[in-house]
Amino acid sequence: MKKIVTLSLLSFWMALPLMAQKNPVSLFNGKNLDGWIQHGEEKWYVENGELVCESGPKAEYGYLSTNRDYKDFELSLEFLQEADGNSGVFVRSTFDGTKVSGWQVEVAPMGLHTGGVYESYGRGWLIKPDPEKEKVLKEGEWNILKIRLVDGSITSWLNGTQMIHLEDQTLAKGEGAIALQIHDGGGIKVRWRNIQLVSLDPQ
Fold first, then answer.
1. In what order do the strands lie in the sheet with 99-107?
2. CA-based angle 188:190:191, to the nearest 5?
3. Is 68 exposed, middle or buried (0-12, 13-18, 19+ CB in 10 A)?
4. pLDDT tens, residue by residue, 145-190
5. Measured between alpha carbons, how far is 22 from 14 in angstroms, rounded to an integer?
6. All domains of the chain, ordered by start, with CATH?
7. Model-level pTM?
8. Which stretches of the chain are assigned E, i.e. beta strand?
9. Could you tell me which residues are beta bridge partners of residue 77?
């Protein structure tokens, strides 16, 4: 009986998806912008081991995207809204200058739907967090954002609280890069660190 149980457990672990066996990869080395592509003329720089985005003189949209595409993944990062924190994390996104097509997981000031999902140059807001969850955001402090994206399923967590879960067939067809955003309007400054990704793509 013990032998049968042991073999069953072994078969179970061997059948687990490769995603459970992968280690996180750091997308930001804390030193420079290697591995990233800048879109627009807003400011992106490294300071004290942190990635900083800041509005430039033109106060336009700006993006910093990965230099490769990611389909299915778990992404975790920390952000601190030093000034106006209207920013975001884009997934499966493509770029034409500063025109980005894809899906944004919102990062914004209190009450403006951090963790919600917005489809850029598409259907607009797809889902917003419940109003009571908006208070999870820590203003003026470091926050932890986690995003899980598999096929057409996307889930976000902010400081350990699940903000949204969405199933969407259009999202399932998307392909592209991960990107950080500076919203237009000026006065924005956000710090980012510990940008870690676990690929969930099958091998």
1. 36-39, 62-69, 177-182, 87-96, 99-107, 117-120, 124-127
2. 155
3. exposed
4. 999 999 999 999 999 999 999 999 999 999 999 999 999 888 899 9
5. 14
6. 22-199 (2.60.120.560)
7. 0.87
8. 25-26, 36-39, 43-47, 50-54, 62-69, 73-81, 87-96, 99-107, 117-120, 124-127, 143-150, 153-158, 161-167, 177-182, 189-199
9. 145
